[in-house]
Amino acid sequence: MTTTADEIRGTTHGTAPVPLSVLDLVTVGAGSTATDALRTSVALSRLAESRGFHRYWVAEHHSMPGVASTSPAVILAHLAAHTDRIRLGSGGVMLPNHAPLVIAEQFGTLEAMAPGRVDLGLGRAPGTDGATAAALRRSDRLNEGADDFPEQLAELVRFLDDDFPDGHPYRRIHAVPGPVQATSPGGVQSPHRPPVWLLGSSGFSARLAGSLGLPFAFAHHFSAQNTVPALDLYRESFRPSAVLAEPYALIGVSALATDDEKEARRQIMAAALNMVRLRTGRPGLVPTPEEAEAYPFSPMERDFVDSWNANVVHGTADEVRSGLDDLQKRTGADELMITSNAHSGELRLRSYELIADAYGLPTL
What we know:
This protein is an alpha/beta fold. Helices cover 43% and strands 13% of the residues.
């Protein structure tokens, strides 16, 4: 099985400067349930597919009441059953939380469900707090997992390709579904395997992705100050591979378009309050705008909110389009992956619809 550049590089539609994609955290607002959030994800994946967004990723988080994306593989299987063309993937699976064989099996299964349209994005952070990470990993040696990331990645790729060398202790272990099925009597195997992406919010994964010739996704939406340095490092470190001849980098960007500019400001304040609570050890459901308006922000919290919201592209559709265009020019990103955070699922759906309209994306 092989991965080709065509399975990585997206197609630009309308007047968008680069391909546009979706990052979904499956957010749960106050007064809603996880079931409501997952129904929104289905509706959003279908909207994204119909309007020419290139890929749809979900991210692994844990122990956060307002984020229901604890199990990317499960959610992606559900979305695969409701879509036909859009690429589906993880943005990302936090590899140190899992045995590489388990991830190879999960994404081999997803590839069998949705042949040729599954991405495997990998991160080395826990996607949660230290205590939860210890519970996930059955170990309190958290730095060890991050430090071992290159070795874990190499092991995962070996399982995906079923090519451990002779004499390796895992030589007779096979990730199924996977290439071993093609070598069994009468076996026929898919020609595809999920492309591996590295995710990051600093320079470590940027350098590693470049040295391995892999595509790179940077979390601009929560590490904006590191975006340009990390992308520069990725491009400088890049070595052509069997996967890519040239670098390919997308950035995750928080953007919310509304019919009314005032409503956009109200919604991003609610999302910012949610982040304040998360950063101070009080994670909860995404609050309503009314709750955010009534919240007594301390001076320190207010500074955090102002800094956080400065990196959220928000406003009317035209304002968001202009902000996204400027960001792409400044970073040189090859793809923009948009995450629209709002209290209600309806507003999230509307945001993507407005962005699609602003760029003249077709109805496919």
